[in-house]
């Protein structure tokens, strides 16, 4: 064989190999087309780009692993600054359901199908079989059904966001096996039942947002073992029982929202002498005194204790605090003179009204 022939054959081989490597696997393409077939997006035409052999190339919202060319990300947001939305002068709207065909994309790492307002149906339970899944973000749809029972198998999952849907049923006990989970957002659904007792196993969690559901039972004290937890929002549920005092000992907990529940007992002193700077305990059944534990390093952007059954006086130490932005003690059974000085000089009467017998500025003189 002459050199030019060899050269020619090598070139052909290279071309053949590279075309095999470049196009996405036909099975991935088929899975995406089946996924698309169960959705209807009438206004923007985002699926018009889903044509051609290579689903890694210019398919809107799809990206692939650069080495294996398998589909790695589905990123479809109904609210976006993409030009496609600007041209249409509107936000996205999509109906239909999430096809179990997405489970046939074995390399999927992130699934974002967010803010389409009209997508219904359930979360395909086979999603728990996707070993590389890191992000599942389905916020802002009309998804029903329950969270998959064996969701705990997703060992790489860091973000689970299903907020603003119609999800019902219990939090699956397996959820506490999500050892990589950092961000859990279940807000504004119809979730019932209790928070798993061993919730504290979620050692990587930094945000746990469970607000606006129908969650009952007590707050598991194991939560306080989550070293990185910065934001805990359990508001607008049906939680009862006491506030675990250990929540006040957490290293980085900055926001604690327990408002609008049926929480009873005393406010643990530790909670007011902690890293928490945004504290809402409003609309519960808390009783006893407000602990007199404020000090120079106390710093609060919000303390809302309104609509409880708190008694006694406003603790004197509160004027030692370095900062208190918003304080609401209204609708309790407090009595006595409102301390003078900061933070009281910038607060309005509404922070103190509807108590047993509070007096002094900004209320009437004693
Ligand atoms: C605290 O929670 C109550 C009840 O959910 C809410 O009305 C109030 O606005 C919250 N307070 C602050 C300061 O956000
Ligand atoms: C507040 O907490 C600190 C340590 O976190 C502790 O040393 C101090 O005694 C506590 N203060 C009160 C009044 O409980």
UniProtKB/TrEMBL annotation:
InterPro entries: DNA_repair-toleration, Leu-rich_rpt, LRR_dom_sf, LRR_N_plant-typ
Keyword presence, Membrane: yes
Subcellular location: Membrane; Secreted, Cell wall
Pfam families in the record: LRR_1, LRRNT_2
Record's keyword annotation contains Cytoplasm: no
GO cellular component terms, A-Z: membrane
Signal peptide as annotated in the record: 1-23
Family: Belongs to the polygalacturonase-inhibiting protein family.
Designated name of the protein: Leucine-rich repeat-containing N-terminal plant-type domain-containing protein
